[in-house]
Amino acid sequence: MSHNNFYITTPIYYPSGKPHMGHAYSSILADVFARFKRIDNFNVHFLTGTDEHGLKIQKAAEKDKSDTLVYCNKISKTFKDLSVKLNLSNNDFIRTTEKRHFASVNEIWNRLVTSGDIYLSTYKGWYSVSDEAYYNSDEITDKNGKKVSTFSGSPVEWMEEESFFFKLSKWQDKLLEFYEKNKDFIHPITRRNEVINFVKGGLKDLSVSRTSFTWGIPVPNNKKHVIYVWLDALANYLSALNFPNINDKLYKTFWPASLHVIGKDILRFHAIYWPAFLLAAKIEPPLRIYSHGWILSGDEKMSKSKGNILNPLEIIAKYGIDQLRYYLMKEVSHGSDGNISLINLEKCINSDLANNYGNLCQRVFSFIKNNCKSRVVKNKNLSKEDLNLISKTNKLTINLKAFMNNNDLNNYIKSTIEISFLTNKYINDEEPWKLKKTDIDKMNNILHLCLEQIAKISILLNPVIPIATTKVLEALKVSSKSKNLSFIKNNAIIDNDITLGDLNILFQKIN
Ligand code: MSP
Q1: Could you give phi then psi for residue 23, rounded to 5 degrees?
Q2: Is residue 447 in contact with ligand 1, taking CB distance under 6 Å?
Q3: How many domains are there within the chain?
Q4: Is 317 among the domain residues?
Q5: Whether residue 110 is found in the same domain as residue 166
Q6: Atom 21 of ligand 1, nearest CA residue
Q7: Candidates 267, 294, 328: which one to mutate for ligand 1, based on the most atoms within 8 Å of Cβ?
Q8: In whole angstroms, how far apart are CA 194 and each of 154, 272, 291?
Q9: 25 in ligand 1 pocket by Cβ < 6 Å?
Q10: Is the pTM of this model over 0.90?
Q11: Domain range holding 404?
């Protein structure tokens, strides 16, 4: 894969209930990275989808009194619709019930058999259907008379059945070597340490097939078994590139994946099982896994089983999608859990979007419309104040790529909004309205620099708030070719002689 290609994925979602804010968060995060890489000249492939096999889904369909596939079709569609509502720029949407996925899972299974990594035995132990995960006895506690996983709090049940096993124990040292060589594989660093400690603690072989239900991909040559849903699910990242056809253009261009965005609850599967499966199957592991924290409601993880869900669709309908995206990306700290609330959402919309960026655009555009017939011509050398603003802006933009490459969206957004703040201050100090009668050239220059600043901020914020910034860039006549990071430092994004298009209010203030 050339360094100019970037393959990014969201987790694929269980269609076991309605999508909620946690799902929206994973997806928006990945979308912001995808959009950023596009304006940074990368050839991006962005994948999302649904994870449709396993007991959890079979049970959900039974509860719904539906045929399992009919049920999956119905709920998978709600996730697809959500991806549109979230304004995701995904290139593909994969469902694990699709034919292309079966081919890829079969190939991985066969490779694991050939490499001698799979054997038949019996699984005896704890299983959580809600997590679709096996737990050791020391990972279980009692809660209100019920056995639950200490890690997730989900109920577990005792399970005994014939099962194929993957020789995970064999890969312990190889995995540790792999983490050592690939220091960037797990982000953020705290999660990396967690994984390394867990692996150092010893890995047991992993049960990778089930016999007590049928909703899954059958084990090749042994139809009594279906493949464990996590082995099935992880393979989606390859299926979408037309694996096992390794000569396929998508596979050749985009594998190994550049970034799997996931929540911290599914880190073990991605950072331990996935590279182990891949190393055993002689496929290169992905380059990075970014594990984000949880969206909390009070002190608890927001989840369907806890019934504390903020519905993303209701929030989008009331406040707008750019607003929700901006709030989640700015306020939930890099890699940590974040408590979200409507009060803070409203505060954030008012302070950053309505009063800062939105106001900057509105005041400059309406002044130019009302006083200059929408036309501004840059015609003077830059003043000391102009140069000062440009240099402060450059300083703030220097670290932006590094923030993004470190998956640190909070600092990326904070720096960008700071540019907007500085530009508002510049207008207040320069008072272009006072120059209308005395020095129209200088006034034009000031306005032109403001427009240039607005163009920069809009390009930089485009990955986060695509709808509003696209309107602004269109009104500034910035072509889609110039909507690119490489133009930021030149201070020449917009034409010297520019006639603005119309711009309506971008963000309504919430009272
Ligand atoms: N199907 C698996 C993923 C397979 S990927 C090969 C799965 N699905 S899920 O629907 O339960 O969760 C999908 C993603 O949503 C996970 O990254 C999970 O962390 C995220 N979230 C679910 N609830 C969440 C919060 N309350 N907060 C933030 N994200 C959480 O796991």
Answers
A1: -65, -45
A2: no
A3: 2
A4: yes
A5: yes
A6: 22
A7: 294
A8: 21, 11, 12
A9: yes
A10: yes
A11: 342-499
